[in-house]
Amino acid sequence: MNAIRPIRRLRPVVLYGLDVLAAGLVMLVCLAGAADTPVGKPPEPGWVSALTVLVISLPIAVRRRWPAAVAIIVTVASSLAFSLEFIPSFAAPGPVCALVLTFYTFGSAVRSARAFVIVAICSFLISAGLGGPMLFAQQSGPPADAPSAVLTLFFGVLVIAPSAVLGFAVGERRAQRALRDEQLRREVAIEERLRLARELHDIIAHTMTLIVVKASIGNHVAETNPAEARDALQVIETTGRAAMYEVRKVLDMLREETPMAPTPGLSDLPKLVETASGGDAAVTLTLESPDDTAPADIPESVQLAVYRIVQEAVTNVVKHAAPAKCQVTVLVGSEDVRVEVTDDGKRPVITGRSGHGLIGMRERVALHGGTFSAGPRDEGGFAVMASLPVGGATAGGDR
């Protein structure tokens, strides 16, 4: 499979140049054969031999552009040259080279039912052209240079069929590789769309939830406590600007000329918790490293996954559990990062279905080969727990 890659990488101009060179070489071989005259037969006019050689060899230069037409032309010309002895049977290497090159290209380009019909008809024509002088010779025995009857019968098949089959195999392999490449491109595109969808969901869901909560607080206390209403509006403004910035960063990922902006990580968790705290939700953060592993040593992709998981979990607390206290615990280790987000919300937990947030968190953890669980706590409230290996995807899955 790898043997054909260097040829396919050549530019079309180079390939056509090689075809022209092959046509010239075949022309020389055919001319050498046409120059010999069979014993007992007067020589044909020179222009006839030259025309026959040109019709056999020149089409090879355009065999990639019109493979079927070139195959038929070369076959008919070679068959007539053999039957009329313009090129005697002992000088068959010239037409044979032309047929091999032509039907290799034909087999790789035309892979349909009509290809088998054309190969069968062309094989018969070549065998009939080679055997014609034997059948219609005006003498008691076959010509001295005539091949055996068995070789004559199967000559066309032996020359054309292997070349066509080899071309067919190469063409099929190229088509399968192109199909695999296209499938890979589609899978990469789908994976990228899912990643962007998760990013946008986490950003928009978190910020819009905070904006709605703060807006409702500000509307509720606008008349009785203008200062608190003003604080709510400031949080809405800050949150909205931050959301616009993060959305712009995600959209910039689609532009190749745009440099990649730094993604949120473990160092951004305090600001996230501070923004989420307020109103009826009190969120506290515990960020520890039992084995003194620095957060900067954690891969960027793992840090982003942890940030988005905490962001989505805290958003769910603000949206579904408030009034409640929420505890975010992140343990950074040399082997994995453990995340636990719990709340003591008194609202009933709706079970039996998972929203897009939980699905997104589960997908993020699965991409890193970690474990994930989420559900109601026995003492009340809800808990989200995740463990992400630092070394990348390992054996593991969702729970």
From TrEMBL:
Would you tell me the Gene Ontology cellular component terms? membrane
Q: Where do the Signal transduction histidine kinase subgroup 3 dimerisation and phosphoacceptor domain residues begin and end?
A: 192-257
| Cell inner membrane listed as a keyword | no
Short name of any one Pfam family annotated for the protein: HisKA_3
| Segments forming domain Histidine kinase/HSP90-like ATPase | 303-390
Which intervals hold domain DUF7134?
Answer: 17-172
This protein is called: histidine kinase
User: What InterPro entries does the database record attribute to this sequence?
Assistant: DUF7134 (IPR055558), HATPase_C_sf (IPR036890), HATPase_dom (IPR003594), Sensor_HK_TwoCompSys (IPR050482), Sig_transdc_His_kin_sub3_dim/P (IPR011712)
Q: Which GO terms describe its molecular function?
A: ATP binding; phosphorelay sensor kinase activity; protein dimerization activity
Instruction: Please write the reaction equations for the catalytic activity of this protein.
Output: ATP + protein L-histidine = ADP + protein N-phospho-L-histidine
> What organism is the protein native to?
Actinoplanes cyaneus
